[in-house]
């Protein structure tokens, strides 16, 4: 006989993670389930996660959210990729764009032909062969045209920049319209039942007990349920990802400079983000306290703003890593409670999204079968490990020797799984995507090439065609991409016409 259904879900914590969870569960579960979200205005949220990756569109689409309405409500803009400056070496600049680069030929990936022509001095910069990397150089943007499947205009892939606080507010309204109950107050104790240690209730500061069947920990890095109450260990990534501090400050928007990319500029002990919104620019300096003091970090940030600051820098401390089990007993951790990479590739909101999707896929009965929990945790472990390796690559692959921080990153030991990928690429430019990992081959290509990991060769079947034929093939792709970019509106004009706040 199957056990009864879970009926009451308690979400501990609001912010982006809490309200994304509430919105998705209220949409999927419907009125037969009780969903309560507990949050405290006193505690607040970190609220600086303003850049996303394209899969956020699937989340919004699943909820039936109109994209233009969402962008107006969140002061949002569009994102085609991440521009990296000074990473592989001082003076470097490359874009990790979403979408594809070139087109395969005879089932051989485009980049092998490009490597062959580059070795012969007959290829231009890699960014010229993708609309997602060519368009930002001219501040151009438009959504993909599904009716133009044979054109680069049909293959534009975008994500968003938005105000995370406004997004949480937007999702709160969505959730409450679907019956989610918000409870204001501070949790002071997590009550567990005997003898299995399952969570029974949250005790509030005013003495109220919030009972439930399933508890979702969205309490941020405090991990009040999964860590403090249930004692799930934390796996520390800081020996590979040394940054553990951030300072965040918005500034006035620079007139006429609405580039559809997140900009990441490396400094001597970390890096600075620039995220353009409709109303302001989000800025932050991510750095390692082992290699730089807070005052120096603040000075670097404030001296590299492009507009008047709209406040004082807000400090954030974090530890990169993950809970070794994201689901323990009747508690699932979502967002920063489950784990955190430093924000270089905008994975934070995506990890919230995938945790929610896994939970819905394996939504439990009241018996909480261990096989379901184990599978959830196994899938989470794979996702964290593969994403972790991609993030580490950004710091390991550098020629910079101008500071102790970059010396440490360049010389540090790395996971064997990442070392294998680098060696495979160095041999003959081969890149393979494993399981359902987040970052595709084209992402690994752009970062490895952009940060000076050199392939010693290329796929031998790329020699099937003559040099003249391959050059014509590359030239044609570059020409078509260029014509498409010329035909696109500017990012600012597209927003003004479609989703201005």
How would you characterize the overall build of this protein?
This protein is of the alpha+beta class and 501 residues long. 35% of the residues lie in helices and 19% in strands. It contains 15 helices and 21 strands. Strands 5-4-14-15-16-13-17 form a seven-stranded mixed beta sheet. Strand 1 (8-12), helix 1 (15-29) and strand 2 form a beta-alpha-beta unit. Helix 1 (15-29) runs parallel beside helix 6 (164-177) and helix 1 packs parallel to helix 9. It is globular. The termini are far apart.
Radius of gyration: 23 Å
Unreliable segments (pLDDT under 50, ≥5 consecutive)? Answer: none
Q: Tell me the strand order in the biggest sheet.
A: 5-4-14-15-16-13-17
> Helix tally?
15
Shape: globular
Helix content: 25-40%
Tell me the structural class.
alpha+beta
Residue-averaged pLDDT, rounded? 95
What does the main sheet amount to? 7 strands, mixed
* N-end to C-end Cα span: 54 Å
Record field, number of beta strands: 21
Instruction: Name the quaternary structure.
Output: single chain
Fraction in beta strands: 15-25%
